[in-house]
Design a protein that fits this description.
binds glutamic acid; Rossmann fold; alpha/beta; binds zinc ion; Glutamyl-tRNA Synthetase, domain 3; 3-stranded antiparallel beta sheet; 3-stranded parallel beta sheet; 15% strand
Length: 309
């Protein structure tokens, strides 16, 4: 793909369920951010987590984007068509001594004293057991990337300055599992590089992944995109909308209404007149008026909303 001469953003849904209001907000936020700069917006189907993929789901997702007038540039990119690229990168990292094989089971890692203070739901920290090598008598469980003891620092355009010491927060993390499946962090970094993405706008649930991705970019000599993590959309009870919690699919027949809700959640104050305007017109208004400043008053995970059920 040619290097972009304009900002280039992307929306990277996993085909594990239909788009819900939270994913529509992420799609719209990344779309408006680049479209206002006359930039390009690409769609990537993040379909490497094969067991969780739902057949035909990518068609449903693309239809929802179309019906909401979120028109993308170029061809849709499928991560599953880039396994060779991930493997090549993995081998290069391994040859450079950055990636090493690991035989630790999940139980061994969670029973390690380093994880004593861990609460349910916290990320397990890898204690570094296999850093110096493994013995042949245990099965291979994963390949891990070494992490530095110094903090990875970066600026998030919405959440402000960030610092994450990966050695403390996660330890050497998995880039490929024992079944041969490459993991999200590696795949996303390679995909963002292949697609030459310059601006990553996505939900704040992925803020915690960003330092891992920047560390990978640094190891690979990739250019770092700008990052903006949007506040998460919660339901009226304060629970993050997610596929796991069965958030309802957006109804394509209510596209205009959905866009107005999404714009309201993005603090864009769409005027009442837009209620009767078709999706393409709402999108035109939104591109023209996009302003991320008001979002700064709404920190992570506090976008309460009462969505129609
Ligand atoms: N596929 C990921 C998700 O749906 C998003 C990946 C990304 O934006 O980096 O949560
Ligand atoms: Zn290990």
């Amino acid at each position: 793909m040619k290097p972009p001469t304009v900002p280039r953003g992307r929306f990277a849904p996993s085909p594990t369920g239909p788009l819900h209001m939270g994913s529509l907000v992420a799609a719209l936020g990344s779309f408006l951010n680049v479209r206002q700069q006359d930039g390009e917006w690409l769609v990537r189907i993040d379909d490497i987590d094969t067991p969780r993929n739902v057949p035909q789901m990518e068609q449903a997702i693309l239809l929802t984007l179309e019906q909401h007038a979120l028109q993308w540039d170029g061809d849709v990119y499928y991560s599953s068509q880039h396994l060779v690229d991930y493997e090549q990168v993995l081998r290069a990292l391994q040859a450079a001594g950055q990636v090493f094989p690991c035989t630790c089971s999940r139980r061994e890692i969670s029973n390690h004293p380093i994880n004593n203070q861990r609460q349910t739901g916290d990320t397990l920290i890898y204690p570094g057991t296999c850093r110096a090598g493994v013995t042949a008598d245990k099965p291979l469980r994963s390949y891990r990337l070494r992490v530095p003891t110094s903090a990875i620092e970066f600026m998030d355009l919405l959440q402000g300055p960030q610092a994450d010491t990966l050695a403390i927060s996660v330890g050497d993390f998995v880039v490929k599992d024992g079944q041969g499946q490459h993991h999200y962090q590696l795949a996303t970094v390679v995909d963002d590089q292949i697609q030459q993405i310059t601006e990553v706008v996505r939900g704040a649930d992925l803020l915690a992944s960003t330092a891992r991705q920047i560390h990978l970019q640094n190891q690979l000599g990739y250019r770092q995109p700008k990052y903006l993590h949007l506040s998460l959309v919660t339901d009226a009870l304060g629970i993050k909308l997610s596929k796991q919690h069965g958030a309802t699919a957006v109804d394509n027949t209510l596209a205009g209404q959905n866009l107005i809700t999404a714009l309201t959640l993005l603090q864009q104050q769409p005027p009442d007149e837009l209620q009767h305007v078709p999706p393409a017109g709402i999108i035109r208004w939104a591109i023209e008026h996009w302003n991320r400043e008001p979002l700064k008053s709404f920190p992570i995970a506090t976008l309460p909303t009462t969505l129609p059920d």
